[in-house]
Amino acid sequence: MVDRKSGIINSFGVFQPYYAQMLDRAPSDISWIGSFEVFFLFFVGTFTGRMTDAGYFRQLFALGFLLVIVGCFATSFCKTYWQFFLAQGICMGLGNGFIFCPSMATISTYFEKRRALAMGVAAAGSATGGLVYPSIMRQLLPSVGFPWAIRAIAFVQLGTLGVAACFLKSRIPPRRSGPLVEWSAFKELEYSFYVLGSFMAFWGVYFAFYYLAAYARDVLGVSFTRSLDVLLVLNGTGAIGRVIPNYIADRYGCLTVQIPLALVTGVMMYCWAAINSTTGLFIWASIYGIWTGGVQSMFPVGLSSMTSDPSRQGTRLGMAFTIVSFATLTGQPIAGAIIKAQGGQYVGAQAFAGSCLILGSCSFVIAKGIRAKKLDQGWKAKV
Q1: CA terminus-to-terminus distance, the chain
Q2: What is the maximum alpha-carbon separation in the chain?
Q3: Measured between alpha carbons, how far is 367 from 32 in angstroms, rounded to an integer?
Q4: Three-state SS string across the chain, please?
């Protein structure tokens, strides 16, 4: 339930074509709304991570809770581009940011042996939200219209976040003193290369979530409702990818799992360019969802595995989140600009996203090599 709020981000492919048609704006313009939403989800991590370590988790969660609900209800009243940008892009983005990093950091402190699996189960909420929210839009948009469909989503968020607020709390004593940014972490080359790899991977990983439904309509000519079904398949199989790889990571190591996840996801992005039928797109989405779900869920898990001191989990996660936020901010507008420059063709954007993921995998390989050398355990080291 904690991570279900980011399901609205994985569901932005529902809003992308609707806003483009309603506001008569280019897809690259609309993508800025979703990009800023996911940008703030990660960007405030440096601040919220350190505040979590200092013992202010409950206050951060309450503020995020308020911003998410207010932003969602405000979105239902929006009529212009700047209104959607402020309500959904900034208000909801900040709200999600005040919840996401503190929640992941707090959950990681509860587990030692099965930490990756526990965080994967928490991350599966994102895929659940990615199923629930498009389904709500699919059913309610034609019958009651956009405003009440969004309000229905707001009520779902109110309930799920309310339950999470009742049960989730800090476990370890607060660390009041300490810098906002732990610069010494970047002297650990495995940490730096892991963050670099995550930046590259997240530059391309959200492309399908934003543009898959639009691709189904623009290139394959399917209906709006049918295009949402493709997005549902993508998010549905993502739940599998957020749990199974994390279970394997507990046994073989986080980087050992993250390397093939990013590599295969990048190759799958190239394969998307060859899809020319609706059936093929559904099959591709079902497979891609598993691999990309793993890339997303393993990101905080890998960072957590590199931090031996639980009282520093929030700070180190937050620093990496802030860096990665700039990849999520620019990735989709860059892809949209490439599509526009190619006259509506998607192959260039697909190649861009796939290349970013493959480069991210290469950086993960370097990070693992450095970590394994430090442990003097060789390439088979559990890292």
Answers
A1: 29
A2: 62
A3: 32
A4: CHHHHHHHHHCHHHHHHHHHHHHCCCHHHHHHHHHHHHHHHHHCHHHHHHHHHCCCHHHHHHHHHHHHHHHHHHHCCCCCHHHHHHHHHHHHHHHHHHHHHHHHHHHHCCCCCCHHHHHHHHHHHHHHHHHHHHHHHHHHHHHHCHHHHHHHHHHHHHHHHHHHHHHCCCCCCCCCCCCCCCHHHHHCHHHHHHHHHHHHHHHHCCHHHHHHHHHHHHCCCCCHHHHHHHHHHHHHHHHHHCCHHHHHHHHHCHHHHHHHHHHHHHHHHHHHCCCCCHHHHHHHHHHHHHHHHHHHHHHHHHHHHCCCCHHHHHHHHHHHHHHHHHHHHHHHHHHHHHHHHCCCCCHHHHHHHHHHHHHHHHHHHHHHHHHHHHHCCCCCCCC
Q: All domains of the chain, ordered by start, with CATH?
A: 2-375 (1.20.1250.20)
pLDDT single digits (tens) 281-300: 999 999 999 999 889 888 88
Q: What is the gyration radius of the CA atoms in the chain, in angstroms?
A: 20
Do 68 and 103 contact (CB within 8 A), yes or no? no
Q: CA 215, CA 207: separation in Å to the nearest integer?
A: 11
pLDDT band at 6 (very low <50, low <70, confident <90, very high): low
Per the structure block, which two tokens stand in for 376? 């003097």
75 vs 1, more confident: 75
Crossing angle (nearest 10°) for helices 115-144 and 146-167: 150
- Looking from the CA of 267 toward its CB, the CA atoms found within 13 Å total 9
Read off the amino acid at residue 187: K
Other beta carbons within 10 angstroms of residue 170's beta carbon come to 18
Q: What is the pLDDT of residues 92-120, one digit of tens each?
A: 999 999 998 888 778 777 776 777 777 77
